[in-house]
Design a protein that fits this description.
Number of strands: 2
Helix content: 55-70%
Structural class: mainly alpha
Distance between the termini: 50 Å
Order of helices and strands: HHHHHHEE
Amino acid sequence: MFKKVVLFFVVVFCLGAVAQAQSTVDSASVNSLPPLTEKELAKIKKKEKDSTWMATHIPQRATRRSAMIPGWGQAYNREYWKIPLVYGVLAIPAITYFYNTSFYNKTKFAYEARFKEQNGDSSDVAAIDPELTGLSIGSLQNYRNSFRRDRDYSILWFILAWGLQVVDATVFGHLRHFDVSNNLSMQIHPQFNPHSKTPALTLSFNIKEKSKKPLLIAR
């Protein structure tokens, strides 16, 4: 019994010495690595920041934010260069709306003034816009209808542009989580069908599971 106890303590002592030696070797190998440069440290910090952002990024938030304020969803997706494009596209129908509304009101007033003039009331003729004084009542009516139609189209195009930027924020919000790494691969292989005696092509997708091992960074 005494011999067994002594043997047990000898084995434990040997295992502890081996573990201590291995720890010393690992520590020495890590300390012997060259120090990281500022550029490498900045790259590592950027990757850590991006991974943290991806973990908290929710595509539905991009949809809701762009629906409330144009460009907010693009900013949430970190696609800041799209914000000027969003407001540029929305500005076009907005400008045409105010332009057509202004001339619609002018032509409408001029048409009504000329209509009153035909019935013997010329009180509003002097207030007609100088650009419209030489037009007949028929031309004023056509211009009025044209500006009213273009004004309504401007509203429609504005709503459509707003909806497109919501769709853009939604789609690219989901694409942020789409795997485009080497874990996803596509291969095309030629084949020969022995039954029909015709050549063919096969398309195969190989999707590998991501490694669950943590990334160790020596500093």
